[in-house]
Predict the structure.
Amino acid sequence: MSQPLDRISAVSLLDGFPEPTLVMDSEGIIEYGNPAAATLFGKTGFVSGESINAYIPEDERTRLQPLVWLKRWADAPSAPELRHVHLNCRSAAGQQIPVQVRVGRLVDDPNRYVVMLQDIREVQARVQQTREAHRLAARMLAICADAVIAVDESLAIVYANPAAEQLFEVASGQLVNRPLAGLLPERFRSGHQHFMTVFAGDTRPARLMGERASIFGLTASGREIPLEASIAKVTTASGLILSAHLREPRVRADPPSLPEASVLAS
């Protein structure tokens, strides 16, 4: 039969926490560390009287003043600015460990803190991978020969690469926030909007060049240009995004005459 909760010791409860947890005083002296904390720092256990500074590199102590931040975390654990602060700790073997920190004061002893740590190495690695992927995509789009334009569900332009700006004869940054309809001759606008609405609700994720007839675009100078287009859609946290890849039709050269073909073959 289970014991009543009020008969279970605090240490027994903290030992069962899956999150690394420390109890320390206002001077940063560790009085308790649960097994998950020992695993995080590569130890078999904590010795009473150890300072938290033993697990924080000197440059990090200078940068962040951990004891000051511990008190701030305890006083305002939900403050928005604290959600973006992490602490670089050091394992017993000297390995750097970035952690997110949650701090609370003991109700019966406000001079003691309960500090919960979350290892964010994997999170930081994923964020770095995402940033690198975004940088790569941005560079690829910047040099892409096709014009690429992305619009939101209202068909307002949210992105245009340099090739799109050149194609429609506008200055850098001048396409974003403009309605897509402004890039089409007026006689095509209602029909194109209907097509985009139908495509947005369709189950097909994309339509490629060659699957639809050529369309016409309208440059800033008023010149109409025939275009081939591929269109795709993706659902993001902010809603549906439709992306179009545009290019002017390639002009095919006439086949060589017979004498020229003979020369090339010889």
In short: The CA atoms of residues 16 and 34 lie 8 Å apart.
